[in-house]
What we know:
Elements: H1 12-22, H2 26-36, H3 41-48, H4 52-66, H5 71-85, E1 87-88, E2 91-92
Antiparallel strand pairs: 1-2
Helix pairs in contact: 2-3, 2-4, 3-4, 4-5
Amino acid sequence: MEVATEARVFSGGEWLQLKADLALSERQADVVEQLFLGHSDKQIAHALCMSVPTVRTHLCRLFSRFGVEDRCGLVVEVFARFREQGWFDGCRQFE
């Protein structure tokens, strides 16, 4: 029987750089990372040992900060900023 593993969008180095570039707090970064894994508010709360209302508070603050209305918009915005920075596998790619 095969065990499914969670696919990561960013490598460890890419995520550290992106987190720094976006100036996310540690908890905000944790919530965003969980969003990229496709987790629900309840799953995020469980994974991060926080309440669902706390997850939603973090999300609302992130939505406001990035000028988006929902979690999909937040994921798109964070990925767009990653692409703008040109960071891939820890190296800056120039066009």
